[in-house]
UniProtKB/TrEMBL annotation:
This is Glycosyltransferase. Residues 7-173 form the Glycosyltransferase 2-like domain. It comes from Companilactobacillus mishanensis. It comes from the Bacteria. InterPro entries: Glyco_trans_2-like, Nucleotide-diphossugar_trans.
């Protein structure tokens, strides 16, 4: 068994129709060297009950409850505080993963111990039941920091700013006091990824599709209102501020 246990953080809010598939996909993993912290963000449906039932069934699952709804960023931050694995990743409570999801990441970190970030590709599962891989052909590469950040902030591709197709080193997150910004409802994950990348070194970008992103019409990303526009603008500003500061620091070190 690989010694780099993966802590998987699930943020869950009113996903009673989806969360069972999420947990069952983890129960079917070919590599059992992981644990799961599921953070229920004060759901008003039966999400918490479903999670509690699974918690009784699986010893690798721990359920944490927020006293009040605080948003996905706060849920992920709570999960980070509870994680004990050498590696960390994030899954949304309405998505699911392929059976070799855990094994893929752990083997990459075992084979290349210098890596600080590894990505995989993903499928988009549509409401009509169809599923399409984001990338049609297999591609992977080792990347430097500049290329990794370039791929993270791109508006298309198989890397982008998501957290659920990436695995991180927990010590880098903790040592650099990284967390998700709770005043953003959109693109908080991109800001986190750029901040992480600026303090990381080894990057491996792979578009092998192992994650299933479930597209829902009620998702916040499908709502077009002034608050979303403001969130995107604020997140973009913070992203480029981080990139600029990192470039400045690197120039001063020369």
């Amino acid at each position: 068994m690989l010694n780099k246990k993966l802590s998987i953080i699930i943020s869950a809010y009113n996903v009673e129709s989806y969360i069972s598939k999420t947990i069952e996909s983890l129960a079917g993993q070919t590599n059992a060297n992981f644990n799961v912290i599921a953070v229920d963000d004060c759901s008003t449906d039966n999400t918490l009950k479903v999670l509690r039932d699974f918690e009784d069934q699986y010893d690798w699952l721990t359920v944490v409850c927020h006293a009040q709804n605080a948003g996905v960023s706060a849920a992920r931050n709570t999960g980070i505080q509870s994680a004990d694995g050498e590696l960390i990743t994030f899954i949304d409570g309405d998505d699911w993963v392929e059976p070799n999801y855990v094994d893929f990441f752990l083997k990459k970190y075992e084979k290349y111990p210098e890596l600080d970030l590894v990505t995989c590709g993903y499928y988009v599962d549509m409401p009509n039941g169809k599923s399409k891989a984001k990338s049609d052909k297999q591609h992977h590469e080792f990347a430097d920091r500049d290329e990794a950040i370039k791929q993270i902030i791109k508006m298309n591709g198989s890397v982008m700013g998501y957290t659920w197709n990436k695995v991180y080193r927990r010590d880098i997150i903790v040592d650099n006091k990284l967390n998700f910004l709770t005043d953003l409802d959109l693109m908080e994950d991109q800001v986190f990824n750029v901040e992480y990348a600026t303090v990381a070194d080894g990057f491996y970008l792979d578009d092998l599709p192992l994650y299933h992103y479930v597209s829902r019409k009620k998702s916040i990303t499908h709502k077009f209102d002034i608050d979303n526009v403001l969130n995107v603008g604020l997140a973009t500003m913070r992203t480029y501020k981080t990139i600029h500061q990192n470039s400045k620091d690197e120039r001063e070190e020369i």
